[in-house]
Write the structure tokens for this entry.
Amino acid sequence: MTTALFSIAGAVALLSAVMVVTSRRIVHAALWLVVALGAVAGCFGALHAEFVALVQILVYVGAIVVLVLFALMLTKAPTNPLPASTTGRSPFAAVVAGVLALVLGTGVVLAFGNEKIDPVPAGDAEAVGNAVFRIWVLPFEVLSVLLLAALIGAIVLSQRSGKKGD
């Protein structure tokens, strides 16, 4: 049952990731990203890592994608479909992606073969909290400052485009 749920969630994640990069509208790409990240959370849930799945939903789906959509709205990014001239590169990109997937898949199979991973009980939220707020506190805070800078930059850019004489 776990393998079936993981396979279904993985297939949804893969298909929605393809839709993210092939979508002609940026808002549609952001919405497909929500589906892809939700499916990754489903993969974590199938592996009985419920805490990580919840954090995936809260942080990535709930915060990062909302921040991307908020930045799109603030900067008044064009939401028109991409011009047809950019779609001519799709066959080449598909070939490159296929070759890359083949090379990476072959590397994983050659490296690990038929090895099985023994499931280990997932850590509790207290252990994860201690790791995040004691060991990884500096990268955690740097990331929050980076996101704040991106938000401030989007606000500044939206204000400049509204002034006369620019």
Remarks:
- The chain has six helices and no strands.
- The CA atoms of residues 1 and 60 lie 26 Å apart.
- The two ends are 60 Å apart (CA to CA).
- Helices lie at 2-22, 26-46, 50-74, 90-112, 125-135, 137-162.
